[in-house]
Design a protein that fits this description.
340 residues; alpha/beta; Rossmann fold; Dihydrodipicolinate Reductase, domain 2; 2 domains; nine-stranded mixed β-sheet; 9 helices; globular
């Protein structure tokens, strides 16, 4: 840390997400970005231009040899494991973009290494730091919506079609991380099944449906699609008392809480009597803080306070296990695959 108690941090990767990390860590007040490392030095210089104190370099070894406390990795997925492992071995706390690694084995090794070294390993599940998702977590975990019945998410748009992963690996980590964050700790999926189609001939599914199964009567579904004519970002979360609709495309009223549902009468055991409840719709006020700013501050605080971050390596590993199982299910034409 510097003499003001701020985390000294290097950002690895100056591509799509790296500039956002530089901006938010710099603005957080809890960190000082000392280095920006990228194989394309010209690109790194362009990103760092508004921040004269940031050193740009292509030499990761030199960065890790410097007296920094942590690194934030925003590079292609296949590079997450070797870069994160190298940083942990150098004694640095690590923030990694989603997904945590390319395989479950890699993710497990990173989690174990961080624990052995006493270092923070955090996955940047950015949506978990939005006001909307945090409100959903509050409503679920306080019991306000009752027992969870279902989670149904649609994340579709036109492009960007990836050349190295299927649509679930590209889009579903968001929904899986949200599900993992919102649901109670004693409600984890035990199996998945997935179906998809390679509609454009890339060798990877471009439209897919992922279902997560639980040990009790709960179901979760994620629809991911690169070929939709419109962008849809909607999640429905149903409970026995209330239901939530989250529309992330809505500019202001993102969350609606409906006091609606059904009640099953038990007067006649030979006949199911259903009554419908139609209550009010509540639109809560959400925390206005930018999600990435909150995420950056959480990483810094977890280091300075010596605790696990909200989206730690274990959370990243749970998402990775679900994605790996989804791949196996896709290959087996939608067969149910048990989670480890």
């Amino acid at each position: 840390m510097d003499n003001q108690g701020r985390i000294q941090l290097a950002v690895i990767g100056a591509g799509y997400w790296g500039p956002n990390l530089v901006r938010n860590f710099t603005a957080s007040g809890a960190a000082v970005v000392t280095h920006l490392c990228d194989l394309d030095l010209a690109r790194a210089n362009k990103v760092a231009a508004p921040y004269p104190a940031i050193q740009t370099t292509t030499d990761l070894d030199a960065v890790l040899a410097s007296p920094i406390d942590a690194v934030a990795i925003a590079t292609p997925v296949r590079t997450h494991f070797p870069l994160a492992k190298k940083a942990l071995l150098a004694g640095k706390h690590v923030l990694v973009e989603k997904p945590l690694a390319w395989s479950v084995a890699e993710g497990e090794e990173l989690v174990a290494l961080a624990a052995a070294k006493g270092l923070v390993l955090m996955c940047d599940h950015t949506f978990c730091y939005t006001g909307a998702v945090r409100k959903m977590r509050e409503l679920v975990r306080s019991g306000e919506i009752g027992e969870v019945l279902y989670f149904d998410s649609v994340r579709v748009n036109l492009g960007l079609i990836q050349s190295d992963v299927n649509v679930l690996w590209d889009l579903a980590p968001h929904d899986l991380s949200i599900l993992d964050y919102v649901l109670p700790d004693d409600l984890r999926p035990i199996a998945v099944s997935a179906q998809g189609v390679d509609a454009v001939g890339t060798g990877f599914a471009s439209v897919a449906y992922l279902t997560l199964h639980f040990a009790r009567p709960v179901i979760a579904n994620v629809h991911a699609n690169w070929l939709s004519p419109v962008k849809v970002r909607t999640t429905l979360l149903g409970g026995t008392k209330k239901m939530i609709v989250w529309d992330d495309n809505e500019p202001s009223e993102k969350i609606r809480i409906y006091d609606k549902g059904i009640d099953i009468g038990d007067e006649d055991p030979n006949r199911v009597r259903v009554s419908y409840r139609h209550g009010a719709c509540n639109i809560p006020v959400l925390e206005p803080t930018e999600a990435l700013a909150r995420m950056a501050r959480e990483f810094c605080l977890s280091i300075s306070e010596g605790r696990a971050p909200e989206t730690d390596g274990h959370a990243g590993l749970r998402v990775l296990r679900a994605l790996a199982a989804a791949n196996r299910s896709l290959e087996a034409a939608g067969a149910r695959v048990e989670l480890d």
